[in-house]
Amino acid sequence: MVRKIISAVYEDFEKYFCALIMSLLVLGLGLQVFFRYVLNASLSWSEELSRFCFIWAIYLGASLAVKKEQHVRVTAQYLLLPKRWRFVVWLFTDIIWATFNIIFAIEGIGLVQHAFQYPEISPALEWKTAWLFMVIPGGFILMTLRMVQLYYRAFKNGTWRELVKIGEG
Known about the structure:
Structural class: mainly alpha
Number of helices: 5
Mean pLDDT: 89
C-alpha cells in the first residue's frame, strides 16, 4: 500500500507540483494587477512569490519534459546518420547531458550549503533563499532520474529503438 502511494507520488510529482505553482503564480500576478489598477494600491509580496514560482516551474517543468520525452533537442544531425547508429549517438549525447546535470546538481548543492551558512532573506516574503535555491540541485537530479527511468523502461520493455524518433511521422 505504502509502495503504491510512493510510486504514484513519484510518477506524477512534477505534473501536480507544476500545476500548483503555476496557479500560485497566476494568482499572485492577478492579485497584483487587481490591487494596482482597481484599488490603486500594490502588494509587496505578490511579484516576489510569482518570480519564485516561475523559477520552480522552469526546473520542475524541465524534468516533466524529460519524463514525457518532449524536451527540446536539436535532431537534424541524426538524419545524416544510418538508422543503426542513431540510438548509439542518442545515448552518447544523453550521457553527456546526464553528466552536465550531475555537475550542475553538485554545484547547486554547494550553492544551497553556502546559502544556509550565510543566510539571505528575501525582501518581501522574508523567506530564507536557501530553501528556494534547493530547486536547482533538485531539478537537475530529477531530470537525470527521469532520463535513467526512461532508458530503464525502454530496455525493460524492449522498446529502446523507439527512443530515437527522428524523421518519422
